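Example 444.
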Amino acid sequence: MDSVTSTAESKKAADIATARETISITDNRTGKSYEIPITHGTIRAMDLRQIEVDANDFGMMSYDPAFNNTASCISRVSYIDGDKGILRYRGYPIEELAEKSTYLETAYLLLNGALPTETQLKDWTWHVSHHTFVHESIKKFLDGFHYDAHPMGMMISTIAALSTFYHDAKDILNPESRQKQTLRLIGKMPTIAAFAYRHTLGMPFVYPDNDLSYPGNFLNMLFRTTEARYRPNPTLERALDVLFILHADHEQNCSANVIRGVGSSHVDPYSAAAIAALYGPLHGGANEEVVRMLHEIGSVQKVPEFIKRVKAGEVKLMGFGHRIYKNYDPRARIIKRVAYEVFELMGKNPLLEIALECERIALEDEYFVKRKLYPNVDFYTGLIYQSMGFPMTMFPVLFAMPRTSGWLSQWQEMLLDPEQKIARPRQIYLGHDTRSYIPMEKRS
Ligand code: ACO
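Predicted structure in complex with acetyl coenzyme *A:
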């Protein structure tokens, strides 16, 4: 660096250091100027309200459909740098957690903000595994579903129904009650998911085995048949645990926003409906759609033709694109590795070649490059789940189960944030002004 550049740069740095953390806005309608504070690179939308044409004016609002550029909360749970492809839970890189942690430990981290000590982890694991049983009545209403009911439909209704069993769940401002519902939800999600799956097959429900790990017990409740004691395959057990870690939280995604929004009315966490948001094909339902799409493409040779249709706007390349990631989703990278470990054991999924060809073309094609569309978490998960023996309809369930710890962390953070109130956005009303009621005989 020459001395002229270095002087200029230090002057710029000094200017920034002495600059006021404010922004000045001049309203050209009135000529008035306003100085608005900037905190964490953000202005408060309520500071815009003072900008008004006259005393009768409501004041300026910001308009941001789909929250493209609006922070709705301050959070310390997970962090994403979408341009660099970084994801951290409570500061820990997702790659390290996927390599060294377990889902239950990660869930504890998300909920409590710190990794547990050995005793804390033992205690936490004991408590979760002692909340895995569901009330026998739950089996009765699961039985009421049609054999081909989508397991997410069964999950959504059964989770909501849990609120009818646990009246103490309404006491959302009581930390002990919150902890109890947290244990219940994390403990019971795999049981309900497995029961929904077994119902579809017409097979008897398998009760939890508390001596198995969290993913091991889930595999037990799904796949056990006549054996006295189910022994999960360690490769599949670990693969599932890693997938659970990767799906545990993802800052203010659609379903996290739902649990914060619905939870802000102080309803119990079972009724907070985040799982319903996750079911949509643009969110957690995408993993199912990816495999359907790969089946529809049918062969590697047909990929270019399909990509043409994507570029023409006829269809989407499911499992690609993300609101925040404008780089490779770091979870997709780990998932690709896990996929090969599972394929080694179970045999390669025949759809893999089609998926790889879609990715190869998309990463080079101008349409995708220009829009920064990369594979997201859902692109490869379906292939793994399919190789593990899960039917496609179970894929979103496998996403919802581990996301429960993230939802509960977001819910708790929202409840404890003194700035949060009932979520209630504004609107810009462009409908009719007052009209007089028209009697039926005068309507055309
Ligand atoms: N295939 C083709 N084009 C796409 C795709 C895709 N998968 N995703 C985005 N684009 C295009 C859009 O058409 C748009 O093009 P344009 O600028 O010419 O209009 C541009 O890329 C920007 O996309 P938006 O829809 O504005 O991006 P947004 O942030 O609103 O949507 C989303 C993100 C919903 C994930 C979108 O990329 C998508 O629908 N992807 C497929 C579904 C999917 O995989 N969902 C899982 C997401 S990860 C998760 O929730 C777990």
